[in-house]
Specification:
Blueprint lengths: L2 H23 L10 H22 L4 E4 L4 E2 L6 E9 L1 H5 L6 E8 L2 E9 L4 E6 L4 E3 L2 E3 L11 E4 L10 H10 L4 E3 L4 H9 L5 E4 L4 H13 L3 E3 L13 E4 L4 H11 L2
Parallel strand pairs: 1-3, 9-10, 9-11
Antiparallel strand pairs: 1-2, 3-4, 4-5, 5-6, 6-7, 7-8, 11-13, 12-13
Keywords: Hydrolase, Magnesium, Metal-binding
GO molecular function: inositol monophosphate 1-phosphatase activity; metal ion binding
Protein name: Inositol-1-monophosphatase
């Protein structure tokens, strides 16, 4: 199957999902007593539209999505991994840092990745072996190799206590890096690594739909993705360290392990 065609469908689906999120965002304000129901409806509406568009083109493909989407029957080697709203808390608070993420596997290998930021109209795309792009222009990771000059991102579990391992890891890298941020969107953090805006992002609490598309985009941007222990990455396991692939990677990995 032509991967350019697959990417084109993924891009169309991501734009559709993003438009739905923006439409729903105009229906509530952060001051509402409980915008959660509306946000759930937005999430579900985005996922439904994405699924219907992709499945209309590829009816035999399998699917995995955040909002309960699961189609695993059949023998197709293709599996779409979809997050219709990555950055839900940001979306609730109208903090414009959220995205639609669509990854595609073939025989368990990531081959297409698309992440769309509807607030900035930024479309990050990648095809395995063909590089990564932002709005059609090639992107690459940064070349910074000193942790003291590096900007890093981290995901922390919701309401993590101060003695949580993830918090200790955050603080340990914070002591050495120029800065460490927590932003609330794994997909956009991975895109930031891929296009050189930041040097590293790690997490041990993500799901496959949080990582799939972004991992491929980082790799195709020239970066490196492993576990936090610098071992082989598995999208089905919540353990990921992404970086620009310089000596920073091993240094951050060592600090993450030391913090345990």
């Amino acid at each position: 199957m032509d991967r350019t065609d697959l990417l084109e469908v993924a891009t169309e689906a991501a734009r559709l999902g993003g438009a739905i999120l923006q439409d729903w965002a105009g229906r509530f304000t952060p001051r509402e007593k409980s915008p959660a129901n509306l946000v759930t409806e937005a999430d579900l509406a985005s996922e439904k539209a994405i699924f219907e568009l992709i499945s209309s083109k590829f009816p035999d493909h399998r699917f995995l999505g955040e909002e309960g989407l699961l189609r695993n029957e059949g023998n197709s080697p293709y599996r779409w991994i979809i997050d219709p709203l990555d950055g839900t808390s940001n979306y609730v608070h109208k903090f414009p840092y959220y995205a639609v993420s669509i990854g595609l596997e073939c025989d368990g290998e990531l081959i297409v990745g698309v992440i769309y930021d509807p607030n900035r109209d930024e479309m990050f795309t990648a095809i395995q072996g063909e590089g990564a792009q932002l709005n059609g222009q090639k992107i690459e990771v940064s070349v910074i190799d000193e942790l003291s000059s590096a900007m890093c991102m981290a995901s922390l579990p919701i309401k993590a206590s101060r003695d949580n391992k993830a918090v200790r890891r955050f603080l340990d890298v914070l002591e050495a890096a120029q800065t460490v941020q927590r932003t609330g969107s794994a997909a956009l953090n991975l895109c930031a690594v891929a296009c050189g805006r930041i040097e590293s992002f790690w997490s041990t609490s993500l799901k496959p739909w949080d990582m799939a598309a972004g991992v491929l985009i980082v790799r195709e941007g020239g970066g490196k993705v492993t576990t936090c222990e610098d071992q082989e990455f598995d999208v089905n396991v919540p353990n990921m360290l992404a970086s620009n692939g310089t000596s920073l990677h091993a240094e951050i990995s060592a600090r993450l392990q030391y913090a345990e």
